[in-house]
Structures are given as structure tokens and as C-alpha cells.
Amino acid sequence: MSAAVIDVLLDRERRLEVAWEDGCSLDIELGDLREVCPCADCRGRRERGEPVTTADRLTALSAELHGNWGIAIQWSDGHETGIYGWEMLRTLAAGAS
Question: Which of 81, 87, 93, 80 is nearest to 32 (CA)?
Fold first, then answer.
């Protein structure tokens, strides 16, 4: 089992920051986060080489924590079905270091 998330900070205009109890952290721009949306529709778009979003200025309208599992974000481009699991976000953090 991986370390627990201890802090989540969403700057609705710029970025998402996540910190785990073992010192691992993620600081990701919203556009980059939207591009890796894990929902089936977005995965299919990436597999077909299509853009996930065409929004010029992307912001996060709201977010909802899903307990020990992850975070769901409602995007300004109308998308709101992807839940970003903590494990997925931790994998992104590991790839960024």
C-alpha cells in the first residue's frame, strides 16, 4: 500500500498540487492534468491521436475529493467525468522527478 495523501491544493486557474506522507509530491499545470484525464472518452481520444480538449483557456470550476481514492474535477470545457486516482497522480509525480 502506498503512502497516504496528506495535502491537496487546487489553484482553479493554474495547477493542482498533491503531497503524500512519505514526501512525494506532484505539482501539475491544469492543462497537463486535463490531457491525462483517465475517463474512457479521453483515453479513446488519445488512442486515436485526437486532442482531449480544444479549450484555449482551461480552468477548474470545482473539485470533489473521493476519499482515499482520488479527486474529480469539473473543467471549464464542460468535462467532468474523469476521476484522477491518487495512484495515477503518484505515478505522474514519480515520472516528473
Answer: 93
What is the pTM for the complete model shown? 0.90
Residue-range definition of the domain harbouring residue 62? 5-96
Distance CA 12, CA 30 (A): 8
Q: What is the dihedral of CA 94, 53, 30, 81, to 10 degrees?
A: -80
Measured CA to CA in angstroms, residue 58 lies from 35, 37, 95 at distances of: 11, 14, 23
Total count of domains within the chain: 1
Q: What's the pLDDT tens digit per position in 41-84?
A: 999 999 999 999 888 899 999 999 998 899 999 999 999 999 99
CATH of the domain at 43: 3.30.2020.30
